[in-house]
Amino acid sequence: MKVAILISSRGSNMQALVRASKQDGFPAEIVTVLSNNPDAAGLDFAKENDIPTKVINHRDYENREDFDTDVSKYLTEQKVDLICLAGFMRLLTPDFVNRWRDRIINIHPSLLPAFKGLHVHERAIESGTRFTGCTVHFVRPEMDDGPIVVQAVVPILTGDTADILADRILVQEHRIYPLALKLIAERKVKVHGSIATIVGAAETEATLTNPLVSDD
Ligand code: GRF
């Protein structure tokens, strides 16, 4: 499976995906890292790892449609099968999202559908919830919406600041994004409407829940 990763800045999730893809037998290849921001720090890492990079600067465009058209054209030329958004800070038009339907995924630092949008860590702490986390999901035209592939739960601890919590969640992001990519590339993820199911998950769930069933 040929994969493009779209970034806007640091690119630590992109790095996690690239590292995973270099492991023997990983079922996906990162064929390009694209940034809308020419100064994105993540571009250097991609270059150092011999991944082709591309900058399509949104500031060179008068509207979203034209920007998205050029991004789509480039990804098609690269024969990309799957797009991974990894800290890509541009809203994509419904036309773009529908054109790549079920072939575009995103990582978001909350347990969706809770805390969509920005400033999620502050909002999670202020809500008083005990647990938050991160989610890899297929992208739909509405922001931070779409079938959920993998999630990880992270506790919110007394005294957490947004930065401390963000760092704790990021560790889990770097685990679940490569896992989600692997499952999708192995064709183990099936999308039915708003739900994504994982082939073989029922067996795993059975072993997880069986010990809870008492014989008494
Ligand atoms: C991550 O927290 C990701 O969940 C969110 O943006 C951040 C990007 O970080 N969508 P990085 O660029 O991958 O380091």
Task: Describe this protein's structure.
- This protein is an alpha/beta fold.
- Helices cover 36% and strands 23% of the residues.
- The radius of gyration is 18 Å and the shape is globular.
- The chain has 2 domains: 1-100, Rossmann fold, CATH 3.40.50; 106-216, Formyl transferase, N-terminal domain (Rossmann fold).
- The strands form 2 sheets. It has a 7-stranded mixed beta sheet with strand order 3-2-1-4-5-6-7, covered by helices on one side. The chain has a two-stranded antiparallel sheet with strand order 8-9.
- Bound molecules: 5-O-phosphono-beta-D-ribofuranosylamine.
- 5-O-phosphono-beta-D-ribofuranosylamine binds next to helix 1, strand 5 and helix 6.
- The ordered string of helix (H) and strand (E) elements is EHEHEHEHEHEEHEEH
Number of strands: 9
User: If you compute it from the alpha carbons, what radius of gyration comes out, rounded to the nearest whole angstrom?
Assistant: 18 Å
Oligomer: single chain
What is the CA–CA distance across the termini?
49 Å
Strand numbers in spatial order across the main sheet? 3-2-1-4-5-6-7
Helix content: 25-40%
How much of the sequence lies in strands comes to 15-25%
CATH homologous superfamily (4th level) name of the largest domain: Formyl transferase, N-terminal domain
Query: What spatial form do the alpha-carbon principal axes imply?
Result: globular
CATH fold descriptor of the largest domain: Rossmann fold
CATH structural architecture of the largest domain: 3-Layer(aba) Sandwich
For the largest beta-sheet, the strand count, sense and barrel status come to:
7 strands, mixed
Q: Any idea how many domains?
A: 2
The CATH C-level name of the largest domain is Alpha Beta
Mean pLDDT: 95
